[in-house]
């Protein structure tokens, strides 16, 4: 059992109450680490530390180039320690080490990218319609930013927020998921080694109602960036609105993965599997609704079933494991409940459909599950399961595919498989989603904006635009000193 501490003001610390909670390894179901259980008092301590670092000390005096150089150093350190960070995440959330190791290395690019972008944010001098007056527009950091991260990809999704927040000159308080706090705390040693001043980055650990919401509502917090479920995102948005805080929300998805009859099935079948069974379906961009053209429905389903049956469930640290356990006991129960709901609504389970125990492993395993005879009004087609459960629906033409795809409350992502360039462009235009993949799936980059339509969230992460989510414009007017003809009339 490893004991972790929160990170506030550049130093480890306990919760004021002394209370702790534990993290469970999803593969072994054994408790392996303990964390401080933060309260509103601890949150206040962390926010005030971040606020002090923003207003006093070294950080406010750093140039944008200095901030960028520190982020580039952090990128190098993350790369150096990628395997260790990945192993910790596997213990916490059960995902494949092969994926988490690659993810940790790739994550370093966010710090390098925003490190390079830090001194590229330029103001402007707009042409003014008033003689003798100069106007300058500059961009300034917001202040203390609350970064609230989920349990499925803790460090990667933290990088999406932390890198642009620091590049812009803000200070932060991070609240990781109570299920996966270890890797974020391990990262703090690298933040310190990179030379980022004490108090600029702080971490509180605990539960949403006890630590998360006090962080969102703290009067010194000026920005909230959250990745998670729709219900929590709605509560955060409503609470933040009371103090007019800026908000970025990356929420749920129920993404369609659409395969036309002219698609290359050698690519589309693995693409469908990657869309839903990679990461055991625990991704917001999961292609959980597979739309198949009538002309290829039977052939595609046969190949899909064959390839899925060959997937190996097992130890996430083993290189030949394809599907690992889901992250938590609560999520395990939720997925199994949705499977029963789908059966009760009339969907046909053609593969999987129950808990698994590969090799007698005690972990939170769910068999990769495929449903046919799914109607788009079923809960299994409308609600986010966040697990290895796929719904398949047929369509006859492009119009029907678009109608089914868009008839959902979410709009995070969509996939299109076709060799027709005109169709690819038409579908990309008509689908209501923030990311459209054509002949690929589940790709993201630090260079490209990511976010959702409808209930999938607000704002965008990644790409050059994301740094603007952490900045505010200031308009400065400079006038030549001269007498004002009539001070009671607006110039």
From TrEMBL:
Active site: 250
Superkingdom assignment: Bacteria
Listed SUPFAM superfamilies: ALDH-like
Domain Aldehyde dehydrogenase residue range list: 17-476
Gene3D superfamilies: Aldehyde Dehydrogenase, Chain A, domain 1, Aldehyde Dehydrogenase, Chain A, domain 2
Pfam families found in the cross-reference section: Aldedh
Molecular function GO labels: oxidoreductase activity, acting on the aldehyde or oxo group of donors, NAD or NADP as acceptor
UniProt cross-references to InterPro entries, sorted A to Z: Ald_DH/histidinol_DH (IPR016161), Ald_DH_C (IPR016163), Ald_DH_CS_CYS (IPR016160), Ald_DH_CS_GLU (IPR029510), Ald_DH_N (IPR016162), Aldehyde_DH_dom (IPR015590)
UniProt KW keywords: Oxidoreductase
Protein family membership: Belongs to the aldehyde dehydrogenase family.
PANTHER family, per database record: ALDEHYDE DEHYDROGENASE-RELATED
Protein name: Aldehyde dehydrogenase (NAD+)
Source organism of this protein record: Jannaschia seohaensis
């Amino acid at each position: 059992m490893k004991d972790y501490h929160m990170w506030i003001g550049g130093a480890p610390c306990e919760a004021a109450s002394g209370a702790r909670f534990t993290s469970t390894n999803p593969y072994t179901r054994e408790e392996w680490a303990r964390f401080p259980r933060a309260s509103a008092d601890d949150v206040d301590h962390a926010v005030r530390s971040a606020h002090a670092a923003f207003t006093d000390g070294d950080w406010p005096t750093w140039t944008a180039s200095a901030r960028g150089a520190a982020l580039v150093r952090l990128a190098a350190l993350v790369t150096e320690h990628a395997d260790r960070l990945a192993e910790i995440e596997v213990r916490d959330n059960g995902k494949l080490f092969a994926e988490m190791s690659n993810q940790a290395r790739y994550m370093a690019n966010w710090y390098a990218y925003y490190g390079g972008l830090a001194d590229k944010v330029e103001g402007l001098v707009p042409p003014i319609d008033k003689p003798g007056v100069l106007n300058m527009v500059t961009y300034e950091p917001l202040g203390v930013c609350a970064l609230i991260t989920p349990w499925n990809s803790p460090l990667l999704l933290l990088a999406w927020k932390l890198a642009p927040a620091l590049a812009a000159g803000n200070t932060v308080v991070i609240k990781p998921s109570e299920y996966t706090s270890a890797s974020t705390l391990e990262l703090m040693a690298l933040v310190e080694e990179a030379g980022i001043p004490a108090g600029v980055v702080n971490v509180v650990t605990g539960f949403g109602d006890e630590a998360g919401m006090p962080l969102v509502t703290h009067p010194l917090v000026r920005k909230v960036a959250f990745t998670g479920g729709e219900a929590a995102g709605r509560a955060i948005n409503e609470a933040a609105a009371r103090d007019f805080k800026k908000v970025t929300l990356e929420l749920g998805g129920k993404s369609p993965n659409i395969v036309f009859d002219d698609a290359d099935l050698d690519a589309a079948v693995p693409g469908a599997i990657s869309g839903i069974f990679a990461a055991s379906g625990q991704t917001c961009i999961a292609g959980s609704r597979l739309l198949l053209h009538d002309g290829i429905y039977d052939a595609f389903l046969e190949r899909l079933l064959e390839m899925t049956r060959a997937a190996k469930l097992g130890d996430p640290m083993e290189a030949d494991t394809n599907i690992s356990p889901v992250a938590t006991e609560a999520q395990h129960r939720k997925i199994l409940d949705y499977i029963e709901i789908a059966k009760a609504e009339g969907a046909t389970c053609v593969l999987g459909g129950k808990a698994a125990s590969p090799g007698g492993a005690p972990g939170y395993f769910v068999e990769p599950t495929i449903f046919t005879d799914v109607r788009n009004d079923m809960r299994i087609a409308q609600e986010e399961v966040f697990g290895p459960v796929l719904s398949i629906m047929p369509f006859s033409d492009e119009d029907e595919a678009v109608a089914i795809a868009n008839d959902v409350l979410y709009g995070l992502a969509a996939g299109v498989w076709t060799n027709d360039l005109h169709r690819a462009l038409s579908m990309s235009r008509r689908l209501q989603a923030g990311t459209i993949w054509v002949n690929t799936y589940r790709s993201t980059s630090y260079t490209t904006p990511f976010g959702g339509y409808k209930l999938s969230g607000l704002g965008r992460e990644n790409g050059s635009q994301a740094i603007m989510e952490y900045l505010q414009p200031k308009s400065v007017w400079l006038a030549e000193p001269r007498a004002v003809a009539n001070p009671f009339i607006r110039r």
